[in-house]
Structures are given as C-alpha cells and as structure tokens.
C-alpha cells in the first residue's frame, strides 16, 4: 500500500500525469523534489536522533570501555546507526514526491528518435557490413524491421512498424 | 600462512559488505560517489578495519556502485551520478526505442569486463612509476599546487575555479588557525563538509525567500519507468554473451588504454574513447550499444586507475578520484596521515605491497561482479521502482544531516560542526555558482595543508 501517512495529497489519483500537488510546498533540494515542511522535520529528526544517539553512547561507553579512543570510535558508530535510524523514520513519515509512470512504448517518441537517427550523416540504417550476431540481437528485440524501414535515406520512413 | 588466510578472509568479508551496501546505494539516483563512498570508507578506516579489509571494501564499493548507478541512468533517464552523464544521451535513445534494459545490460557488461582488465594493468603502471616515488614525495607540495590548478582548469569552472582556489585555501587556513587556538586539529570535518557541500548550501538557500522562489517546483517529479525483458536463463548472466565479440574487444581495448591515464577525469576519458569507437561503427543501433559499453567500461577503468596508480606508486592523492571518493585511503587522520614537512606517508601505500593490492583488489572485483552485476541485470526494474516509490528524498537528507553533525561532533565537538557547516556552505555555493566542484575543493584542501606551509617557509 505504500505511504498513507501525513502529507499525502488528497487530490492525487495515482499515476496521473503532472500532478498539481496542491497540498505540498515543493522545492528542489540536492537534485530532488521535497516538501518544505517535510524537509524541516527531516532535518530536525536527523539532528535529534543522530546527535542524541552519539551523545548518549559517548556517555555510556566512556564509563564502560577502558581506552578512551576506542570508546569514542564506538560512540561514532552508534551515532552513524542513529543516522540510519533517522533516515528510516523520515522514510516512514514522509512519502516521496515523485510520480512513477509505467511507460508504454510510445510510438510518437520512437518515430521521432528513428527520424533523428536516420538523419545523422555519420551513421547508417543499412545492414550491410553488419555482424550476424548484431542482426540476430535486433531481430530478438523486434528492432530489425524498424531500422530497415528507415534504411538508407529513410525513403519509406514510418511505413513498417514492429508489433 | 595463518596471517595470510586471515587477511584473505577479512578482505572477502569487508569486500562483500562494501559490494552489498553500495549495490543498494547506487540505486538511489543522484547520490554522488564522493558524498557516499568517501564518508563511509572513512568510517571503516577510523573504526580500525585491517588494511586488506579497507582496500577491498573501497574497491568493491566503487565497482558495485558503478554497476547499479547504471539502473537509474538507463531506466529512469536520470544520471546515477556525475560519471553517468556522458552515457545519458545514448541511454535515452534506447529508452525511447522501448529497450532501456538493453542500454543497462550493455553498460554494466562493459563495466565488468573493464574492471577485470584495468585492475592488473593499473597495478603494473603503478610499478613502472614507483621508482620515482621518493622524488615525487619530496616535490609533493609543488605537485599538489600544480595538480590543483590543473584539475581546477579542467573542471567546468575553468579559470573561475583556478581563481577561486586562492580564497578557498585562505578560508581553510583561517579555520585551521581558529581551531588551533583551542588546540583542535581537524581533517575529516573539512572532507565531509566539502563532500556534502551541495546539500548544506541548498539547506541554507531554501531559507532565503527569494531563493526559495527560484527553487520552487509546481509539480511532483515525474519518472517514466520502462518495461523489462529478460533474455537469459538462470541467475548469472555472461557479459561476453551480452556484448557481441566486437563490443567486448573494443571495451577491453579502451579499458586497457585508459588504465594508464590517472590524471584525467573519468568523464572526459569516457567521452573521448566513446567518440573514437563510435566513429568506427556505421550502423546506428550497433554504434549506440557499442558506445554505451565502451563509455561505461572507460569510466570504470579510469576510476580504478586514478585510485590505484597514485595509491600504489606514491601514496599521495594526485588525481581527481584519489582526492575525492578514494581520499580516506590516503588521508584519514589520526590513522592515515601525509606529512610533507618530513616527507612521510602513513597510509595504505605503506601498509600493503603491490601484490597485496592486486590480490585483495581482485577479491573485491570478483565480489562486485558476483553481487552487483547479476543483481542489476535481474532486479533492475523492481529495485528502481521500489526506491522511487518508497524512499523519499527527505529520508536521505535526514541521514546526511545526521552524518554531518555526528562526524563533526566526534572529531572536534562544536568546532567540528562549525567547520563542516562553513566548508559545506562555502564549497556548495562555489560549486553551484562557479562550477568549482568538490574534486577541485579537495585539491584546495591539500594545497592548504601541504603547499601553504612550504610556501610560507619559502618566503620567511
């Protein structure tokens, strides 16, 4: 079922294109989209859990372990585990701000790409000089006919299509 | 012999850990290799792992992440990390043709072959260069200055990056003077700050109303996930069957050549070798698939060479990879140190022999090939879908904010946290505005630590 926790937008049919996402205040941070309130909470959660774990572990270990350097290293390890815990907590609380669409092979896209490839003067669509292994590979993928149909010059361009 | 058997078991254990962990990390799109591999390796070093374990951990992590970052690149059309950018166009073409799984398989099969070719060659090249080690170590302060300028110029920032080196080094020197007043000497905090600088800078800028408007997005991020087709029986695919004979030869050849180039960026080498091979192949489909295999093979081989050659030959991080993701193998105070004043290097370079590097490296590459390769080939689609649907970006931000604070506190208390914040904010903003990237910033750090004292001695 995924996430039905706080912040899930009410008006978002799953999989629909370009969701307005009106309930979110979206910003792009560190190469992905987040909600500003969720971001604030995730920073607080990360800080409190990780630093808390580290400080508590440091206090306990200092009295248990004899060598201070080793106690400190283990306290850091505990702190790092705290980081992972804070990540898990944030992952459970805040859903991703992404829409994943199961793409079906879009003919319009494919025709556009094939036209671009056919127009490139440095390449050819012709099977002349092509290794039999490559021809077999294209056959298995259902691409052989498609490429051949755009063959030299692309005269009979989108006539044939693979099923 | 007991010692050797123990070391092999340790290497295999840490290698397996690195391979599994970073096979998963690679699936998260946009995770930079410097921001993830460097801090985790640093932890492995500081927690006291044996040298054989540290090396195989790093190696398995780097090779595995390189495999699985091809998954978001091929299936979602977003680069897994910076090294994947030269592959994006051809991968997108295949995605639009409805066969993104072919892009993925060509890419990572190229990477497997390249890893096995480049490891022994990189060790061999290192042995050739090793006799010059003593001279190189003595000249290190000036070499680092030269390397910093060269790497800055070859970054996207060009002269802006070269010029920005000066104030950047001054900031590091000033911070060192500040913490020195309280008898606190920091190293790791600078690294971590630089590595996650882009995140820290973004967290600051989002607080500013005008900048927030610029970062505002109206829509959720959209991904189109392509369908998958499996074309082999069993669990383990054979890279020599996924690539045709010519592609395997081109990939192995390109990987061999680029195993000797340890100062250029993997991205640049991938572009050059891809063009070179592409210009020899006429058929459009065959060209795209071959270029994908070769380019991904080349980013792998250059990456391995850039880390191993300086590590084995000199023990000094004289390449972009060595100064970035592999940095903790060279410098992880207090355990690994580089002191140019006395010319002493104390890191993996002094702890492992070239033969050990080769052996433990091979263990790591085999483990990555056994873990990451079949995983990416078999479960790419499901894994990419799971990550994009279930792991929010907020969760990743949460983890890294925690990491920055814990490491800062651990190394230098409140001062450590301050240094991470300052380096992150300044470095992150310079990266965004001037393209003064983290690799260049790491070189700036070395310039401050190694070259600046030598310069001051020279003029006093």
Report on this structure:
The complex is a heterodimer of chains A (163) and B (460). With 163 residues, chain A is mostly helical. Chain A has two domains: 26-93, no CATH class; 107-159, no CATH class. Chain A contains five helices and three strands. Chain A has helices at 36-64, 68-93, 107-119, 132-141, 144-149; strands at residues 26-29, 32-35, 98-102. In chain A, α1 (36-64) packs antiparallel against α2 (68-93). The longest helix of chain A is centred in the first third of the chain and has 29 residues, at 36-64. The radius of gyration of chain A is 28 Å and the shape is elongated. Residues 1-19 and 153-163 of chain A have low confidence and may be disordered. Chain B has 460 residues and is mainly α. Chain B has one domain (2-214, 225-459). Chain B has helices spanning 2-27, 33-46, 51-68, 70-76, 88-96, 100-129, 133-138, 140-154, 159-180, 188-195, 197-205, 209-215, 239-242, 245-258, 266-278, 284-313, 320-323, 327-330, 348-351, 354-390, 393-434, 438-459, and strands at 221-225, 337-339, 344-346. The N and C termini of chain B lie far apart (53 Å). Classes of the chains: A mainly alpha (163), B mainly alpha (460). At the A-B interface, β1, β2, α1, α2 and β3 of A face α11, β1, α16, α20 and α21 of B. Chain B: Keywords: Membrane, Transmembrane, Transmembrane helix. Chain B: This is DUF112 domain-containing protein. Chain B: Residues 16-432 form the DUF112 domain. Chain B: InterPro entries: DUF112_TM. Chain B: The chain crosses the membrane at residues 6-28, 40-61, 107-130, 142-175, 187-207, 250-273, 357-376, 397-430, 442-459.
């Amino acid at each position: 079922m995924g996430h039905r926790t706080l912040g899930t937008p009410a008006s978002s049919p799953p999989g629909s294109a370009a969701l307005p996402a009106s309930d979110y205040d979206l910003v792009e941070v560190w190469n992905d989209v987040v909600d500003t309130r969720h971001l604030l909470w995730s920073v607080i959660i990360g800080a409190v859990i990780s630093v808390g774990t580290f400080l508590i572990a440091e206090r306990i270990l200092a009295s248990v372990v004899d060598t201070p350097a080793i106690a400190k290293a283990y306290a850091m390890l505990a702190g790092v585990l705290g980081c992972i815990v804070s990540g898990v907590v944030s992952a459970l609380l805040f859903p991703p701000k992404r829409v994943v669409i199961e793409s079906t092979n879009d003919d319009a896209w494919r025709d556009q790409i094939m036209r671009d490839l056919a127009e490139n003067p440095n390449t050819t669509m012709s099977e002349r000089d092509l290794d039999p292994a490559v021809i077999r590979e294209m056959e298995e993928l259902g691409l052989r006919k498609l490429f051949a149909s755009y063959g030299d010059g692309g005269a009979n361009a989108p006539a044939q299509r693979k099923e | 012999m007991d010692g050797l058997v123990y070391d092999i078991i340790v290497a295999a254990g840490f290698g397996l850990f690195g391979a599994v962990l970073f096979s998963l990390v690679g699936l998260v799109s946009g995770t930079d290799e410097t921001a993830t591999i460097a801090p985790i390796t640093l932890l492995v070093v500081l927690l006291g792992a044996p040298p054989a374990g540290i090396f195989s951990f790093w190696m398995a992590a780097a090779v595995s992440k390189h495999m699985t970052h091809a998954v978001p690149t091929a299936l979602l059309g977003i680069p897994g990390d910076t090294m994947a950018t030269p592959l994006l166009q051809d991968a997108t073409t295949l995605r639009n043709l409805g066969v993104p799984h072919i892009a993925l398989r060509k890419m990572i099969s190229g990477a497997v072959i390249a890893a096995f070719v480049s490891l022994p060659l990189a060790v061999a090249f290192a042995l050739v260069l090793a006799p010059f080690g003593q001279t190189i170590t003595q000249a290190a302060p000036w070499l680092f200055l030269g390397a910093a300028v060269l790497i800055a110029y070859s970054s996207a920032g060009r002269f802006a990056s070269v010029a920005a080196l000066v104030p950047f080094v001054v900031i590091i020197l000033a911070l060192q003077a500040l913490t020195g007043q309280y008898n606190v000497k920091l190293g790791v905090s600078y690294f971590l700050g630089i590595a996650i600088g882009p995140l820290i800078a973004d967290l600051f800028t989002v607080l500013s109303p005008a900048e927030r408007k610029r970062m505002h997005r109206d829509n959720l991020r959209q991904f189109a996930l392509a369908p998958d087709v499996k074309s082999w029986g069993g669990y383990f695919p054979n890279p020599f069957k996924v690539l045709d004979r010519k592609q395997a030869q081109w990939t192995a050849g390109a990987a061999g050549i680029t195993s000797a180039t340890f100062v250029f960026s993997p991205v640049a080498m991938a572009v050059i070798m891809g063009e070179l091979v592409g210009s020899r192949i006429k058929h459009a489909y065959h060209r795209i698939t071959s270029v994908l295999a070769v380019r991904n093979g080349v980013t792998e081989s250059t990456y391995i060479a850039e880390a191993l050659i300086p590590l084995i030959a000199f023990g000094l991080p004289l390449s972009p990879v060595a100064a970035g993701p592999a940095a903790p193998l060279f410098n992880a105070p207090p355990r690994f140190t580089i002191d140019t004043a006395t010319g002493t290097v104390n890191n993996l370079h002094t702890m492992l022999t070239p033969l050990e590097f080769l052996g433990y490296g091979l263990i790591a590459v085999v483990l990555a090939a056994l873990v990451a390769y079949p995983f990416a080939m078999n479960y790419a689609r499901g894994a990419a879908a799971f990550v994009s649907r279930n792991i929010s970006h907020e969760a990743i931000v949460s983890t890294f904010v925690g990491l920055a604070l814990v490491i800062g506190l651990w190394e230098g208390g409140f001062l450590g946290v301050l240094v991470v914040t300052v380096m992150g904010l300044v470095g992150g903003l310079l990266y965004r505005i001037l393209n003064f990237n983290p690799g260049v910033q790491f070189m700036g750090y070395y310039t401050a630590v190694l070259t600046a004292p030598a310069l001051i001695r020279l003029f006093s």
